Amino acid sequence: MATGYRPEIIQRAFVDFIGSRLHPFWSLTRPKLRLIARQALNDDLIAVQFEGNHAFKRQALDSDGGWHGGQHINLTAVIDAIYYQRHYSLVGLPKQPLYLQSDIDNSESSENKQLQSNIITIAIKPQGLVSNYLTQQASLGTIFDSSLPSGDFTLAQAKLDTQSANQLPPAPQSLLFIAGGSGITPMLGLITQALSQSHTVTLLYYSRMPLAEMPFLKHWQQLENNYPNFTYHFINTDDPNSYLAGTRHLSAESLLALNLPLADTQIFVCGSQALLAGLYDAVQTITSLGMDSLANKRSLRDNIIFERFGNLSHEPASIGNNDNAKNDIATQTVYLRGRQRQFDTNTTLLIGAEQAGISLSHGCRQGICQLCRCNKASGVVKNIETGKISSDGYESIQTCINIAMTDVVLDI
């Protein structure tokens, strides 16, 4: 009886294996990126550009119009014969990538125009093993394995968060993007996409750099010239003349100074834990003062979406994603049995130790490299990436992605 199954005479995996021996960039199925350019945006950020192979272009660029603003890739780098994986936000959109000056200067030929249609750009702060390798050590032409673009830090997520089962309330037309430091990276694609959908968009960016060194400044200026519904505010934390409401930090006063309908504004945030904590404190203050006018007993915090793959997924437990977070997770004591030291924490075990002046082994701080893994002798912890609650017994855990639910003893 016919089943409809037709086995491949020649397996694609075999073809990929042979093809990779002939040319490492070639593959039918495996997305790969080739390093083609890099350029310093300022003292903190370096733009790194790649060309995608046929598999990447077919699966990521040609399907469904390409990736969405705010998504990221998982890049694999081989350094000293060891494989490392890191997530990096994509800059721009498939049809509107960021071009480095070298690309612009040489963009007249048809060959360069074709190449630019395949450009994938990330912007990296040169710190950490893999980031230093990408920005300083890897030779142009180096080939990397890559995931396809993914992640829910997108405009589609805003619709999911703001629409209930009966479709009320509707998706907000006002969007506020808040970034700090390298958190500006995913905003260009998000904002460009939002403006193309006729949203009113405000960008609030905190940095230590002068305005002239603001990442993608030319792009923000072009967007402001082309879209009257786009406004950006650059806060140089060392320049009082740039402060909003007279404060260098994000606060209730600075949010209110934007004159936005906050109750109907979706807020995207990407930056340090301090920035996220400041945002939650600000919206809590605004809510307590009754200035948000939210209907249906919703909280202004429900309008916040933050990037989850990097350090932002390690926010203090006391500022979680629901109003009962403080009741669910309190400050706990962590005892390091080998060092006979202890500290109190309500954030990840690694960050809690660092806040107490205790140095623990770590690498990526994202739950990938496993360098922070240690043995837990007793106590219950929660994995903030998966939500899994551990047992109370002896087991191996990662300090960078676990928070203490009870007092904990670590064999460190």
Key terms:
single chain, 412 residues, alpha/beta, six-stranded antiparallel β-sheet, five-stranded parallel β-sheet, 24% helix
Which sequence of strands runs across the widest sheet? Answer: 4-3-8-1-2-7
Outline, from the CA principal axes?
A: globular
Q: What is the alpha-carbon Rg in Å?
A: 23 Å
**Helix/strand-derived class?**
alpha/beta
- Tell me the number of strands: 20
Q: How many distinct helices? A: 12
Strand content: 25-35%
Q: Give a quick account of the main beta sheet: strands, pairing sense, barrel closure.
A: 6 strands, antiparallel
Tell me the distance between the termini: 62 Å
Mean pLDDT: 80
Low-confidence stretches: 101-115, 160-166, 309-329
Summarize the amount of helix as a percent range.
Answer: 10-25%
Task: Describe, in plain words, how this protein is organized in 3D.
The protein is 24% helix and 26% strand. With 412 residues, the chain is of the alpha/beta class. The strands form 5 sheets. Strands 4-3-8-1-2-7 form a 6-stranded antiparallel β-sheet. The protein has a 5-stranded parallel β-sheet with strand order 11-10-9-12-13. The chain has a 5-stranded mixed β-sheet with strand order 15-14-20-16-18, covered by helices on one side. Strand 9 (174-180), helix 7 (187-196) and strand 10 form a beta-alpha-beta unit. It is globular and about 60 Å long. Residues 101-115, 160-166 and 309-329 have low confidence and may be disordered.
